[in-house]
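Pasting as-is:
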Amino acid sequence: MDRRKALKFTGSMAAAVVAGPSLFSLLQSCKNESRVDWQPQFLTMDEAAFVSKIVDMILPRTKTPGALDVKVDIFIDKVYANLYDTDGQNNVRKEIAKFNDDCRIDYGDAFVSLSESDQIKALQKAEENSGQFESSVWGTAIGNPEPVGFYRSLKSTALWGYFTSEQIGENVLNYDPIPGAYHGCLNLDEVGNKWSL
């Protein structure tokens, strides 16, 4: 991927972040969608299986709900369908196909058909080869941003969908819809879990 395409792709992600009100409605619509009868808006069924498998491996169910429990894959499909322009959508399709082609070359099959150990190796390789998001101040990058690539972008969107879901916000993170007094400079061990609101 050349620098121009990478910056364009990163710009598409930045535009997605700016579209806050639309995202809230996407989150709400994911909550009401049943996994059994889910028909992706943008992704093909194979692409949806790919996204579902990756987000499940990034955020598996443990003592807390996993990505599939809060329908992060459905959220990502809605982001691609409603917030990406045609070029961004075409790029997503190309990147999913490229990821699967790389898996075929390295491990002999598409990502979802690999053994768990090979899937882990594929994700570790993608993690190592992905750029990092630069620090920013009010949405403006500090320094020279490097292209983050498809995997890092997908992972970031998965984390975003996960931590902004109602179930995680209210039941896993600390939640107080009517906060009281402000207490600054507390030790982290006094605060406990991260706060969603």
